[in-house]
């Protein structure tokens, strides 16, 4: 007979939950649609191509930056982080059931924001204005919900863990 194995259960105290209602998703989609229409109006079908390419390149950039950071930090991300395609969480983010340290979340978010902006700034020298504006818009569009929730979470002074839900950003006490 084998001895019973003990399991470890972590009980975190919920400090705050930031919900993104259906109206946020509608506004989010409407902003994306407005960007496509503005690109179509300004540059014609080439503008739509700019928007599509900017989306794909930024999606790749927003994957490469955190993955590089994880490799440098020797952080095991394979079962913790992955691609999310549910509004408003689009991109390479923690999985729904995973807790992430708030300091590490901010570190990843700052790197994505700053290095992504730097890449856009450097590429803007050679790219047409419409393409550069599409890059800037989609960069802000991807990061907007993340930064909003992060700024709200800064007001809580405890050691924090965050967890992304389907349409929520939960902050827990570590």
Question: Can you tell me about this structure?
Answer:
Keywords: Membrane, Transmembrane, Transmembrane helix. With 174 residues, the protein is of the alpha+beta class. It has one domain. Helices cover 56% and strands 18% of the residues. A 4-stranded antiparallel sheet has the order 1-6-5-4. It has a two-stranded antiparallel sheet with strand order 2-3. β2 and β3 form a beta hairpin. The two termini are 37 Å apart. The model has no long low-confidence stretch (mean pLDDT 89).
Topology:
Layout: E1 13-19, H1 22-43, H2 45-73, E2 81-86, E3 89-94, E4 100-101, H3 102-123, H4 129-153, E5 160-164, E6 168-173
Antiparallel strand pairs: 1-6, 2-3, 4-5, 5-6
Helix pairs in contact: 1-2, 1-4, 2-3, 2-4, 3-4
How would you sum up this structure in a few lines?
The protein has 174 residues and is α+β, with helices and mostly antiparallel strands. It has four helices and six strands.
Major sheet: arrangement of strands: 1-6-5-4
Please report the distance between the alpha carbons of the first and last residues. Answer: 37 Å
Secondary-structure-derived class: alpha+beta
Helix content: 55-70%
Count of domains = 1
Q: What's the alpha carbon Rg, rounded to whole Å?
A: 19 Å
Keywords: Membrane, Transmembrane, Transmembrane helix
Transmembrane segments: 23-42, 48-70, 108-129, 135-156
């Amino acid at each position: 007979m084998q001895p019973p194995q003990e399991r470890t259960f972590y009980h975190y105290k919920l400090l705050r939950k930031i919900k993104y209602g259906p109206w946020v998703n509608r506004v989010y989609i409407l902003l994306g649609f407005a960007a496509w229409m503005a690109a179509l109006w300004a540059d014609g079908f080439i503008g739509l191509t700019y928007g599509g390419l900017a989306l794909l390149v930024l999606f790749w950039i927003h994957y490469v930056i955190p993955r590089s950071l994880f490799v440098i930090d020797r952080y095991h991300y394979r079962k913790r982080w992955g691609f999310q395609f549910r509004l408003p969480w689009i991109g390479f983010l923690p999985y729904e059931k995973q807790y992430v340290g708030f300091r590490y979340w901010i570190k990843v978010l700052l790197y994505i924001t700053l290095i992504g902006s730097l890449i856009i700034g450097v590429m803007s020298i050679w790219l047409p204005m419409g393409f550069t504006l599409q890059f800037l818009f989609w960069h802000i569009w991807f990061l907007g919900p993340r930064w909003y929730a992060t700024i709200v979470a800064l007001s809580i002074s405890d050691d924090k863990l965050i967890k992304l839900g389907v349409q929520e950003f939960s902050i827990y006490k570590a």
